[in-house]
């Protein structure tokens, strides 16, 4: 079963921006790429650095620590399936943004 978390309007990033969000101890990075939202764990699967502050190019986020790049849409390392960061569906209903997290992934 999945849980939908409503994002408060002040926490929704503008196009080209990102926000670090906390859900019951879980840190997620929410990106707005030209109006398309992507949500990932704010923990690089390599050595755990924050991805929220990484370099964003299109829908690719580059980790500041060692430079690995991840596709925000799939969570996978670019051109590889060797590493994957947790990513979550984002829904927009009547202007309200929701992040959908599977119950097994939720720490609540
Ligand atoms: S911790 Fe992200 S690339 Fe090493």
For this entry, give a set of tags:
108 residues; Rieske Iron-sulfur Protein; four-stranded antiparallel beta sheet; binds FE2/S2 (inorganic) cluster
Structural features, described:
By secondary structure, this protein is mostly beta strands. The chain has one domain: 3-layer Sandwich (Rieske Iron-sulfur Protein), CATH 2.102.10. 0% of the residues lie in helices and 44% in strands. It has no helices and 10 strands. The protein has strands at 2-7, 18-23, 26-33, 36-41, 55-57, 60-62, 69-71, 87-88, 90-93, 96-102. The model has no long low-confidence stretch (mean pLDDT 93). The site of FE2/S2 (inorganic) cluster has 8 residues, from loops.
Question: Spans of 5+ residues with little confidence (pLDDT < 50)?
Answer: none
Using only C-alpha atoms, the radius of gyration works out to: 13 Å
Number of helices: 0
| Gap from first CA to last CA | 13 Å
Strand order of the largest sheet: 2-3-4-8
CA-based shape: globular
Assigned CATH architecture: 3-layer Sandwich
- Cofactors and ligands: FE2/S2 (inorganic) cluster
How many domains, in number, for the residues? 1
CATH class: Mainly Beta
Beta-strand level of the residues, as a percent range? 35-45%
Quick recap of the structure?
The chain is mostly beta strands. The chain has strands spanning 2-7, 18-23, 26-33, 36-41, 55-57, 60-62, 69-71, 87-88, 90-93, 96-102. The chain has a single domain, classed as 3-layer Sandwich (Rieske Iron-sulfur Protein).
